[in-house]
Design brief:
8 helices; alpha/beta; 7-stranded parallel β-sheet; 37% helix; globular; 18% strand; TIM Barrel
């Protein structure tokens, strides 16, 4: 299991990073992305603090990535923030996509794809043109385990398959009960309309991290 979209107390999550890591480890997670919500007001704080949990890697069979989730950042400002976050050491750029359950600014999905974020999270009702852009710019489209955001998973999966875009399954975990194991990740992919074979491939042959799972 690889989960590259999670949150800690450094944004709106419930757990400090070390507890999030430990609980993910107990779910069989082999790579964890900690991607707290950021904008220009807190990106330095989040990356400076979350990156310190990578100190645990040498005593765990887990890779830890310190990243960000750009959340409600106006599309014209997203590239600047992503560039700055990478300069600060971010391993992973996730963009909070145009989920149908939050007032995300129109154009966020497209800008995330244009700037080459690693993951466009819960992108909602993306268009075929956006799915093509995800393919062309090697951006992963997320199938999310998070309630509310996941109502568009089937739509995202269908357009991704038609376009040949990459898919990932992430939790968007904010609390202990949000974390999932490999079996549940495969169920989420299948629930989005993927065949069992393709669902297993999405979960086990991860599009971003190549680990011997």
């Amino acid at each position: 299991m690889i989960d590259l979209h999670t949150h800690t107390v450094f944004s709106d999550g419930e757990l400090i990073p070390s507890e999030l890591v430990r609980r993910a480890e107990m779910k069989g997670c082999r790579a964890l992305g900690i991607t707290d919500h950021v904008d220009f007001t807190n990106v330095e704080f989040v990356l400076n603090h979350v990156s310190k949990v990578k100190e645990l890697e040498d005593v765990l069979e887990m890779r830890i990535l310190s990243g960000i989730e750009m959340t409600h950042v106006p599309p014209p400002k997203m590239e600047r923030l992503a560039t700055y976050a990478r300069r600060l050491g971010a391993d992973l750029i996730v963009v909070h996509g145009e989920t149908p359950v939050e007032p995300v600014a129109p154009g966020t999905n497209r800008k995330a794809l244009e700037i080459g974020a690693e993951i466009l999270a819960h992108p909602g009702f993306i268009t075929p043109e956006e799915a093509d852009l995800a393919r062309d710019n090697d951006v992963c489209l997320e199938l999310t385990a998070r309630r509310g955001h996941n109502i568009a998973n089937g739509h995202v999966a269908r357009l991704a398959l038609e376009a040949g875009a990459r898919l990932v399954v992430d939790t968007d975990a904010h609390a202990p009960e949000d974390l999932i194991d490999r079996k549940r990740a495969i169920e989420i992919a299948r629930g989005a309309g993927l065949t069992l074979e393709r669902a297993v491939a999405v979960v086990e042959k991860h599009a971003i991290i190549d680990l011997d799972l």
